[in-house]
Every structure is written in structure tokens, then in C-alpha cells.
């Protein structure tokens, strides 16, 4: 049987198409202007970069003057470590809050939820002072400098991750854990052998969000990454655009280098984001 298409469905899809176009076109506009010279952008910013308009000078200047690959290495390392630590810590905390009833558990969960209301701007000064007293801020050690960024980013992602994971874990059948307990498994074995495999969609969601948030977190990086060789891609290209002033071609190339990897990651992993955010919404 042919599915009938209602007028309401047509209007909904039309609205969503227009909305998607208004979201996607600015990205396309920035990418196409990254292949134009500065004067060409000012004269004709909406034409496609073909013929005389096309140039790779902006990218040659960005890669020639800066250590782009080293900055990408720092960004990927920090983001991956943040994702791994968030999965490990938030997963165990979420399991304890979802399955164990102890005095103060409800209050503790309320504190976790309330922690989501505090932005990073409100805590950056005491965090910076604390890490300075530890001697890990602005040092010549690459590992310590990376650690100084990883720790506050992990802390900033924990509350959201615990809420998402605990909501999913509460929807899992308790009988599976009881069966594992009867087979002789302890709490850690139940968590790693039963809970984690069943919670893969939610863990994937948390890992992706933590990775992208860490990758784009320019504010924290501005405080802790002062040495040129320690800078991430967002920190490095922010310095580039601030030095070049109104060189719109170079600014467009810098934005492209920062945004395109994130867009690619989201395109390939969007199904895990959607599945993980909605899988624990209905219990049945």
C-alpha cells in the first residue's frame, strides 16, 4: 500500500529543509571563502571559488607559518584522554547512583544535577590557582601541561555524563545483574561484564560529547596553554586570526581547519548520539 503524504507532513519537511539550509549554508560559505584572496572576499563573497577566484594561499600561509600538525596532535590527545577518563569515572559513579541505595544517595544525585548549572567561567580562577600550586601549569613538561587541561575538562563533563549514563542504567533489567551475582560475579565484574556491554550506546554518546566539548573548549585552553609548542588547534588558530587582523581569507581557512574535523566526526557518529540520548528515555 502506498503511504499517503499529508499536507502537514509536507509543511513539516519544508520547514526542516529550510532550517537545515540556514544551518549548513554558513559552513559552506566559510569553506568556499577560505579558497579566496582577501580582496576577492570583500568584492564577491557569495560566488564559488572557481577560475581566478580560487587560491590556496590562505592554507599555505596557515601551514607554513604554524605547527598545524603538532596542534592537531595536542588537541586529539587531550580530547581522547578526556573522553576515556569521563567514561571510566562517570560510568562507575552512574552505576553506583543507579543501583545502590545508601544514605544520602538522593542528595548526592541532586548535587550532580545541580553541578550542571555552574559554567566553567565560574570555577576557572580557583581551578587555575589550585593547579598552579601543584606545579603543573605553564611548565616545560608536555605531559604536565596536557594534564593541566585534561583535569578541568574531565571535571566539567562528569555531571552531564553521570546523568545520561545513570538514566540509561536504570532502564536495564535488574534480573541480569542478579543472575551474574548468582554466578559468583562481584560488583566490578558485574559492571564491566554486564553493564558496560549493555550501555554501549549511552557510553558512545558521552564519549562523543566529551570529545567534541574538549576539542572546542578554547576558554580553558587560553588559561593553561601558554607555550607555543603546547597549543591546540583552536588555541593556535585563535592566535593566528588575532595577529592577522582583518585578513578574512585566512580567518575563513582557520575556521575551516577547526570546524571540518568536528563536522566529519559528527556525520559518522550521529547515530550513536541519537541512539544514546533516546535509548534510556522509555523504560519497558
TrEMBL record:
Domain ABC transmembrane type-1: start-end pairs: 72-269
Entry's Gene Ontology cellular component terms: plasma membrane
Segments traversing the membrane: 12-31, 76-98, 107-129, 149-169, 190-215, 248-269
Entry keywords, A to Z: Cell membrane, Membrane, Transmembrane, Transmembrane helix, Transport
Bilayer topology annotation: Multi-pass membrane protein
Signal sequence residues: none
Keyword Ribonucleoprotein assigned: no
Matching InterPro entries: MetI-like, MetI-like_sf
GO biological process: transmembrane transport
Subcellular localization, as worded in the UniProt entry: Cell membrane
Similarity comment text for this entry: Belongs to the binding-protein-dependent transport system permease family.
PANTHER family with a match to the protein in the record: ABC TRANSPORTER PERMEASE PROTEIN MG189-RELATED-RELATED, SN-GLYCEROL-3-PHOSPHATE TRANSPORT SYSTEM PERMEASE PROTEIN UGPE
Protein's name in the database: Carbohydrate ABC transporter permease
